Amino acid sequence: MLWALFFPDLSKIRDKICRIRYNQMERWSLHGFIEGRGGIEMSGSGMTLQHDLKFYPSDKPLAENDYRREKERILRKVSSDPNPDHYLELAQLEYRRGLYEESKKAVEKALQERPDFPEGELFLSKILEKMDREAEAEQAFLKLMERHPSYSCAYREYARFLLEKKEQTHRAECLLLRGLELNPQDGLAHALLAEIYAQTGRERQAVLHLRIASRRDGDTYLHQSCGKVFFQMGKYSEAAEQFRLALMADPRNKTARSQLKLVLKLQRKGILSLAKIPWLRRSNPAGER
Asked: TPR repeats located where (predicted)?
């Protein structure tokens, strides 16, 4: 009995914190952030939102000829100026080629040259995740947030990791809200938060964050994420528009093209069983583990 007096239910405290942060987000949207008038600079990183979207590692395969040509170009830059940014560029190239061990070595070289390099630490975390070394990846995310508590991308990417690997929606929600406190213009974080809200029956909040996220044009991954959530909520016209924007940003993206075709087909013929659609399998996440 005494234990309960001194140690209250932590889950209730966590819920209260999340509600406070969501109320802050609604106030920000009403004061102009939804119109894109807020600051775009990321706290503690010096990177703009547009830079961050380009930094987001692509899983799109890279042709052999393109890979060799780009690698030669980057290696020339590295030999003339061993800048950590050049090593990070090399790591991104190796990542796109699927050479994760080589990508990891390049990032580690960048971190040797510049130990205080949150972008490099973030990319290392994502490489470990891609290599199915999930325990190491999670520790890397946690270390990054501890070392750089003002780096908003760290909260977003760890939240994405928890959603995809552990289905911990509540914890991910709190992390995304914390990241958006630091950078309210992070479109990817808004899209992830909208997905959580859509899955948990909070459609009004989901639409609010999708409206903010979808104003950041020109990124295929972002538009696909928004389109997926619109589709889950049965808003097929909005979903089709997001997949169309994804194709405009990357006309060769076969996944976005097939998603757009599917939405248009379902609009014409009526909705079928969503359980058969691979990219909607996380529509009913399990509880936190």
From this structure: 84-117, 220-253
User: pLDDT (tens digit, 9 = 90+) per residue, 42-87?
Assistant: 333 333 333 333 344 455 667 888 899 999 999 999 999 888 999 9
> Per-residue b/e over 242-253, b at no fewer than 16 CB within 10 Å?
bbbbbbebbeeb
CATH code, residues 40-185: 1.25.40.10
39-43, 129-133, 184-188: segment of lowest average pLDDT: 39-43
CA–CA distances in Å: residue 79 to residues 66, 74, 126, 138: 20, 9, 26, 33
Side chain identity at residue 215, one-letter code: R
- pLDDT digits 0-9 by tens, 234-253: 898 899 999 999 999 888 88
CATH of 206-289, one of 1.25.40, 1.20.120, 3.30.420, 1.10.8: 1.25.40
Gap between the Cα atoms of 131 and 133, Å rounded: 5
Structural tokens at position 207? 């639409």
Whether the CB-CB separation of 263 and 236 falls below 8 Å is answered with yes
